[in-house]
Specification:
The chain has 346 residues and is an alpha/beta fold. It has 3 domains: 4-47, Orthogonal Bundle (434 Repressor (Amino-terminal Domain)); 58-156 and 291-323, Response regulator (Rossmann fold, 3-Layer(aba) Sandwich), CATH 3.40.50; 159-289 and 327-339, Rossmann fold, CATH 3.40.50. It contains 14 helices and 12 strands. The protein has helices spanning 4-11, 15-22, 30-42, 49-56, 72-87, 101-113, 128-134, 159-173, 188-203, 220-231, 245-257, 275-279, 291-310, 336-339, and strands spanning 61-66, 91-96, 118-121, 140-143, 154-157, 178-182, 213-215, 239-242, 267-271, 285-288, 319-322, 325-327. It has a 6-stranded parallel beta sheet, sandwiched between helices. It has a 6-stranded mixed beta sheet with strand order 7-6-8-9-10-12, sandwiched between helices. Helix 5 (72-87) crosses helix 13 (291-310), helix 8 runs parallel beside helix 9 and helix 10 (220-231) crosses helix 11 (245-257). The longest helix has 20 residues, at 291-310. It is elongated.
Length: 346
């Protein structure tokens, strides 16, 4: 295995010059730097990052803790993180908690053992990430979900505004019996979407009946289960706001099993926009979240936190709220009762 001495000998330079090139010091003349780079390539030399990290107290590695890597929304966020990290010379260690608090704790211990410089967290419902990290004054940024008592740095979508706009879309089409399948209400995004939904109904003077509020957990099976309850109600809703892509798939399965057509009998509006939304029948109306931008901005924010904490400066925490986009397609339409005014009341 080649050493730094071998590189210096082949390039005809001092050990100090090789060290400067490895560490990106720009005082080395371009001609010498090119010789060193050529020697490193010829010898297949790779710097000892562990030894370097002990010296500079940085590993150039960040940890990313994701609650469910199978969810395509989080995959989009991860792409934004990795691209931005790579552009700043950072490596990324991804850990999947699979919505399991015990696995989340294990993953956090793994990241600490790897001496990552900071972490980006999409937490499970247990909030162990917050408790584990804040006490250590560790550089971290939360994405998408914010624990209830957390006042630190975070990047989220405008969940309240998105749900409010989606509900107003239903109201504008003439719907009055409007239901929601929420996500987990102990997570900030789940609660904010419910509150935006409530506000739109309240401003329109429409009631929210208890049976039209179904609490899911962001996962497919809960969308299916809640969908069956809504569709089997004696007076079912004419419009359903479904608060995640996975739950929307579960709801669509329930509608298919019950042979209920969309949007003729029930309009559907889902959160998150992916290729399949354009390719199912009917094409789905969705709330599109800026997944990659969330990851990119969270990574930028974390790098600022790492630098400030490394320099002993603890500045103010940041919170960025990104706009969403309502993409209207074929799964939302006026209810039949608008054309045939004989509405049933609950």
């Amino acid at each position: 295995m080649a050493t730094i001495r071998d590189v210096a000998k082949l390039a005809g330079v001092s050990l100090g010059t090789v060290s400067k090139v490895i560490n990106g010091v720009d005082s080395v003349r371009p001609k010498l730097a090119k010789r060193v780079a050529a020697a490193m390539e010829a010898l297949d030399y790779h710097p000892n990052q562990v030894a370097r990290s002990l010296k500079v107290r940085r590993t150039q590695t960040i940890g990313v803790l994701v609650s469910d890597v199978a969810n395509p929304f989080f995959t989009g966020v991860m792409r934004g993180i990795e691209g931005e990290a790579r552009s700043h010379g950072y490596s990324v260690i991804f850990c999947d908690s699979n919505e399991d608090p015990d696995l989340e704790r294990t993953n956090l211990d793994t990241l600490f053992a790897r001496r990552v410089d900071g972490a980006l967290i999409i937490p499970t419902n247990a909030h162990t990430a917050e408790q584990h990290l804040v006490r250590r004054r560790f550089p971290l940024v939360f994405i998408d979900r914010i624990p209830p008592s957390f006042n630190g740095s975070a990047v989220v979508a405008d969940n309240f505004g998105a749900a409010e706009e989606a509900t107003r879309h239903f109201i504008g089409l003439g719907h009055k019996r409007i239901s929601i399948i929420t996500g987990t209400l102990t997570l900030s995004n789940g609660l904010d979407r419910l509150e935006g939904f409530r506000k739109a109904l309240q401003q329109a003077g429409l009631p929210l009946h208890d049976e039209y509020l179904q609490q899911g957990d962001f996962l497919l099976e809960s969308g299916y289960r809640c969908g069956l309850k809504l569709l089997q109600h004696p007076v079912p809703p004419t419009a359903i706001l479904c608060c995640s892509n996975q739950m929307t798939l579960g709801l669509m399965r329930a509608m298919r099993e019950m042979s209920i057509s969309c949007p003729d009998r029930v309009s559907i509006l889902g959160f998150d926009d992916f290729d399949w939304a354009e390719n199912v029948n009917p094409r789905l109306t969705t709330v599109a979240q800026p997944m990659m931008e969330m990851g990119k901005q969270a990574m930028q924010m974390l790098l600022r936190r790492i630098t400030s904490i490394h320099e002993g400066v603890y500045g103010e925490e940041e919170k960025v709220v990104l706009k969403t986009e309502l993409r209207v397609r074929d799964s939302t339409a006026p209810p039949l009762e608008v054309l045939d005014p004989a509405p049933h009341e609950v």
